Amino acid sequence: WVREFMIKQWYQRRVRGKGEIGLHELQQEAMGYFILLETNFMKQGIQKAVSLERREEKSLASSIVDDTCYVIQKSVQRAISSKNVDTTCAMINNAASILSVDVCKVLLDVIITGYPTSSSYSWNQQGTEEQMKEQREAFLTALNNARAIIENILKLAKGFEAKCEKNFTEEMMKKVHSCLSCLRDVQSDFSEVLRKGEASLCKVAVYSKLHPVVAEVTSTSHILSEDSFLSLQLEDPWLQEVVKMFGEVVVPLESLLHTEIYHSIVSTSISEMTEYLEKLVMMCSFSQLGGLMLERRLRFLSTYLSSLSRWSAREQFARLNYIALLLCAEQLSEVSEIFFISSPLSIQDVRKCLKLRTDFRREEIEKIIN
User: Fold this and answer.
1) Rounded CA gap, 228 and 208, in Å?
2) What count of other Cβ atoms lies within 10 Å of the Cβ of residue 171?
3) In angstroms, rounded to a whole number, what is the distance separating the alpha carbons of residues 244 and 327?
4) Sign of CA dihedral 44, 46, 51, 56
5) Cα 346 to the center of its chain, rounded Å
6) CA end-to-end span of the chain, whole Å?
7) Average pLDDT along the chain
8) Which of 144, 168, 193, 303 makes an SS bond possible with 172, Cβ 3.0 to 4.6 Å?
9) Distance CA 281, CA 276 (A)
10) Are 115 and 200 a contacting pair, CB within 8 Å?
11) Positive or negative CA dihedral for 5, 8, 13, 14?
12) pLDDT at 254
């Protein structure tokens, strides 16, 4: 149609007596119309994809992911087939803008509504279990959509680059690479949606249940007798409750979320638990056996939680493990040797930890740690 447009324009101007017109000028005019039409088609196509969004029963993401990818792919490929580098760059930039403004905003609006719980619906809102279930599904789907679109942007950029290399010179490709870089940068907008969504999900669905269970560590004494220590080795109610909480709250999310999102949630939850547990431990008093029991609990949790994630939890437990190591010391003389191990704690923190031991004298602690 571009060639037909140029011939028609050339003929009309000759008939009207406007003289000759260069082919380059006609081409530029045709490409201008093409960009307007194609951008409008792309925008309307994506808006329709959003309005007709649906999710298959066994799918984590909705149709908006594939539909928007398809519309953008076809529009930019048509621009590339024009063999005009400026037109191609304009369409790539427009695709990036539409993704950022139109698609990303739709997902962000869903995320902002939050992940609902029973307390989210008050009596005057007349909320039902069905409404809560639908909102939860919408929230999780928006998270999965954001992750899938990030992956699709990379695939699109790679595909466009390969096609452009077949149609443009090396000098022209410098322009294309600059535009593709802008397209890839749109990932940061969707990554921000992911960050907000994950933070909201963790706060509402995980932390609200994690904190009360972990806080129970302060409800029992850590100055243990040998009998108490042996009894806890056989059955540790606190440890069982923590494992149960992760099993009932975090593990079920694996079947509902994109793999990357699930592992991110697990890792974030582990970090939250270790930071919170450290604050609680620093409020307790310990005997050596109490320190040994803490070390045993941490070792078990580190192994268990590492099994839930693709990443080891060892680094997240580093500070707590070092605290337990200090609290396990049989005598203060051992501490100076422990302290020279690569310590994640400051000297001030080490002093605070040692003062948790009821059998260590404060003046001796000050002498050893100086």
Assistant:
1) 30
2) 8
3) 27
4) positive
5) 31
6) 83
7) 87
8) 168
9) 9
10) yes
11) positive
12) 94
Residue with tokens 């940068």: 185
Place of tokens 């450290």: 278
Q: How far is CA 20 from CA 1, 7, 23, in A?
A: 21, 12, 9
Rounded-to-integer distance, Cα 83 and Cα 154, Å:
23
Q: How far, in whole angstroms, is CA 193 from its chain's centroid? A: 8
- Look-up of token digits 């037909």: 4
Burial 108-144 (b: 16+ CB within 10 A, else e): bebbeebbbeeebbeeeeeeeeeebeebbebbbbbbb
Q: Judge whether 291 and 338 are in contact, CB under 8 Å.
A: no
Residues 63, 144 contacting (CB under 8 angstroms) = no
The single residue listed with the structure tokens 């380059």 is 24
227-274 pLDDT per residue, tens: 999 999 999 999 999 999 999 999 999 999 999 999 999 999 999 999
pTM for the whole structure: 0.86
Q: What is the DSSP letter of 286?
A: B
Phi-psi region of 82 (alpha: psi -120 to 50; beta: other; left: phi over 0): alpha
Tokens linked to 260: 């990357």
**C-alpha pair distances (Å), 36 with each of 3, 41, 156, 242:** 17, 9, 21, 58
Strand partners, 222: 286
